[in-house]
Amino acid sequence: MLELRGVPPKERYRRAREALAALGIAELASRRPNQLSGGQQQRVAVARALAARPLLVLADEPTANPDSKTGLRLIETMRRLNEEAGMTFVFATHDPRLLEHARRVVWLEDGRIVRETRR
User: Fold this and answer.
1) Whole-angstrom distance, CA of residue 79 vs CA of residue 85
2) Of 43, 47, 49, 107, which alpha carbon lies 20 to 30 A from 7's?
3) pTM attached to this predicted model
4) What is the CATH number of the domain that holds 56?
5) Are 95 and 63 in contact (CB under 8 A)?
6) Is 23 within the bounds of a domain?
7) Is residue 3 in a domain?
8) Rounded CA gap, 40 and 118, in Å?
9) In angstroms, rounded to a whole number, what is the distance separating the alpha carbons of residues 93 and 84?
10) Could you tell me whether strands 104-109 and 112-118 are parallel, antiparallel, or unpaired per DSSP bridges?
11) Which domain holds residue 53?
12) Measured over all CA atoms, what is the biggest interatomic distance in the chain, rounded to whole angstroms?
């Protein structure tokens, strides 16, 4: 994705390492996908998305597979990127830890908004 956007190779490498480090997996940079656990693969996918520095990230159950420590780190990373880089995160989740950190929570039922809270 970064290559298609014309980001120079050194900058692509720097962004990738930075995103991996933010998620606590920089040491896995040289591994192949089949050498990673499911949780590690999920964090690599998140790092790949974050390296592009999007304004909006859509995530389906981003904390569903990782262990609790990793899930919390991911939540903290999303919060920091929201505050520092202005990234907006929209996610579907059943994880109450993630909901505790959200500024706005919308509950859907049968495709309709049934409740909304803002913090």
Assistant:
1) 10
2) 43
3) 0.77
4) 3.40.50.300
5) yes
6) yes
7) no
8) 32
9) 23
10) antiparallel
11) 9-118
12) 47
